[in-house]
Amino acid sequence: MNQAKIRLTLTVSLLILLFPALCGATSLWVDKGTLFTDRKAHAVGDTITIIVSESMTALRSGDAANSKESSMSMSGTGDLDFLPGFGANSKDSFATKGSISNKNAVMARLTVQVVEIKPNGNLVLSGKQTIKQHGEEQRILINGTVRPEDVTADNTVLSTYVANAEINIEGSGPIARKQKQGVLTQLFNFLF
């Protein structure tokens, strides 16, 4: 019996020593950073979420006035003094006033890619988002440059921190077509 206990003990010990090697166990821990910081974009191909919050107001007004008066008179002299005198007066005036008021607001959240890293470390971003709903399509395109220190811990950046920002919003569909002027309206605007 003593020999059976020794065999059992050796077999169990051998299994305990060899089992982890046979399983090929690997760690679940990914060593890409510390426990105390979030991963922020820092390489080409990384993504950053831009929080677009832009508003713009443009007001323009102008007025113009112009007036012109002219008069002319003629009468016969010398051998032609029998002709009666005559004259003409002309007066023209023009006044106009106009104003334009335009207000725009854009609120969006868009994830873009880092497409280039400048020598000073700034990140060049580019991305687009397309939303299709009920026959309408809206595209938001964003390009710009951001400093790495302006990217927050949760890997977002406000659009106000994007240098040389180009934010284009385009739409197509039935509603977008109705918002455009017709051919006759464009012709009258061109002529007048």
UniProtKB/TrEMBL annotation:
One of its GO terms (biological process) is bacterial-type flagellum-dependent cell motility. The keyword Signal applies. It is found in: Bacterial flagellum basal body; Cell outer membrane. Keywords: Bacterial flagellum, Cell outer membrane, Cell projection, Cilium, Flagellum, Membrane, Signal. InterPro entries: Flag_Lring. GO terms for cellular component: bacterial-type flagellum basal body, distal rod, L ring; cell outer membrane. The keyword Hydrolase does not apply. One of its GO terms (molecular function) is cytoskeletal motor activity. Belongs to the FlgH family. PANTHER family: FLAGELLAR L-RING PROTEIN. Assembles around the rod to form the L-ring and probably protects the motor/basal body from shearing forces during rotation. This is Flagellar L-ring protein. It comes from Acetonema longum DSM 6540.
